Amino acid sequence: MITPALSDDILMQIDKPARYIGNELNMVKKDPANVAIRFAMCFPDVYEIGMSHLGIQILYEQFNRRDDVYCERVYSPWPDLHAIMKEQQIPLFALETQEPIKQFDFVGITLQYEMCYTNILQILDLAQIPLWQKDRTDDDPIIICGGPCTYNPEPVAEFFDLCYIGEGELSYDALFQLYKEMKASGQYTRGAFLREASKVPGIYVPSLYQVDYKEDGTIRSMTPLYDDVPARIKRQVLMNMDEGAYPSKPLVPFVRATQDRVVLEIQRGCIRGCRFCQAGMVYRPNREKSLEQLKTYAKDMLASTGHEEISLSSLSSSDYSQLPELVNFLIEECCGDGVNISLPSLRIDAFSLDVMSKVQDIRKSSLTFAPEAGSQRLRNVINKGLTKEDILQGAGMAFEGGWQKVKLYFMLGLPTETEEDMRAIPELANDIAVRYYEIPKDKRNGKCQITMSTSFFVPKPFTPFQWAPMYEKGEYLRRAKIVNDTMKEQLNHKSLRYHWHEADVTVLEGLFARGDRKLAKAIYYAYEDGCFFDAWSDYFDADKWDKALQKANISVDFYAYRQRPLDEVLPWDFIDTGVRKEFFIREWKRATEDQIVTPNCKMQCSGCGAASFGGGICVEGKN
Amino acid sequence: MLKVRIKFAKTGCMKYVGHLDIMRFFQKAIRRSQLPIRYSEGFNPHQIMSFAAPLGVGLTSEGEYLDIDLKEEVPSREALCRLRETMVDGMEVLQFRYLPEDAANAMASVAAASYRLRYKHPQQFPFSLEQLLEAKCQFYDDAVTITIVKQTKKGQRELDLKPLIYDFSIGSDAEGIYFDLLLSTGSVDNIKPELVMQHFFATLDVVPDDHEFFIHRIDLLTRLNEDLCSLGEIGYDK
User: What is the ipTM of this complex?
Assistant: First the structure.
């Protein structure tokens, strides 16, 4: 058995020591002496969050299938351990071998949300690896990032040697091959490797580009330093979803992870085209896994983990073409004997209600709708096809079937939003309650409970709303107050509830989502001043961030509050996601000028550009 | 009804995994092994499973027990194999025994626990074996009562440790000094080994912090006709 890197004295004085010992079921064991490449895969947040992430489990499986690679895991030590490691100079270690990651070949960090950016620095700092890319030597590991935030890596680009743009299934083999060859031939230097790596499809090497700015602070140009470095980076896409590695023996943590269940990824991409949604744009085209393969994985993964629950993962499960077959299979073949299905948010219709009544306790469970906007006008602007009639009809069917609880999700601060749109949120909730009370008293089960939640809209790169302005914190709260006040005026206000998110982090999220390289200093200063775990409200410190932004001379106005002109060079323009900028411009105009919806990919192709990948819905839709 | 008692050991780094997580570990392990365990009725059925005595974080053990109910009989040897295949390093299933119909469940039957303790930082305890034995004589062997004040939720209460320490011996081997304790355990008088050590060392003018000892639980015992016997001796292989 492996001896923990941390002493017994330390493990006994920190919270949840089992986060740091590894040894979980299905952990991969290899002799590091027998591999050419040691890879530390990192999710820069606490263990329970990181262990819930499917992408890392996929890459863990994929990398470890290679005999010449040993992929291990590392997560952010919680602040209690962080303090001890800093004080005693204990280098951050990987869970599998408990050995310091500074002696590894690669450290891969997944960027799932902007508020983890200071935790990148925490990882590097504790690992005793130089924070800035330019300060690293040939002996330091190659630091690479991937994940959704790499669709604009610029705010953190100067901390990374490499950024992987797209789906990890595609280019890692080529990258590993290159590394191995250069190491074996003795040609390896950090500089030489990065230069060669820039030619691997999907690999972006920030240090090989020069960014020039105009006087107004916007980007004039971003140019490769050498002729053989590509000017644009093409997103990597797995076209045959049945070909990728999938963890049929996923790791099972001892500490209860947030996602304590089997997760079955059924498809990537989304046909819907909601204009605020980055995932719906950058994961195009929609590609399904085959029903047969999903059936096999479901059985294998339940058997290899012993989990008591299985859930489906995708952006819009209702759109999976063989959903009824899949769900019926799971109910008939996998459920029972203590195994449950947890259903993702399905479109509410006769089928989903029937399924839900089989697998959930109707009295306790609630229906979920995500209209995202209260009024039909604004729903058209964001291209959310859902109509009020859909919602009332779905809710009505559910109420007749015995449900009483409804959850509604909305965003505030969407482009073109007016006070009327805000007031429409509680009005819609009231209409749903009215529908409930239409049911005769003897056939319903007391009161209904309609819960509205709002988050604040953050414009994201590679969406039709990437040019849209944000608002200051006070303005967001003013909008939430309008919703709250209007709710109180409703006839059925006693059946309505309203929650809104804190606005503190929203602006910062927006700043990083659309920021450029100048933001790196602010992240550095914030970390230096003690900011980390910013995604955790207990640790988020708005004052420290204000100071860091000031010190780095960052104008929030410039990055967040300004309507950006359509012809401005955007920091992420060098990435080619396959979806063309002309499409985003067209969609932006359809949203804000014409206020009309665009049909989904199944109904009609809108020519976004993703058809260039030659597969998925783009091909299946056309006979 | 088929009642089964499983004996297991928890060693190495598994000592940092808490009791609730060990419970979840076994729930999943039993599903993986596909043993025909019985589930409770209701909308969220759970496995019929009860653990003898929770082991604190930081303790190792070679004598832990959990009881389960099976829907149908599986030969002990086969069940043992299936469970062993799905363990992790530091978790070892030692026995799989069927219980008599009238056997009390593991938690209700526990009456005592035996422990072996060792120093984590021997330099903080500069005592020879002779000194320790002499101190133990005074503290335990020759004492009529060992009155201590125990902090409870409702305040302080006096407690006599003497009748609750069934055995106390000190020895020495290649790894150094060790302390063997046999202590009253269970829902009524649950005595933790740290508590005894605290009061014992107080007689030598040393106040050990929590976690000053490596604590290894050797076994859990039940009362059978006035005598103590291992929980693992109840029942039989099938």
Answer: 0.95
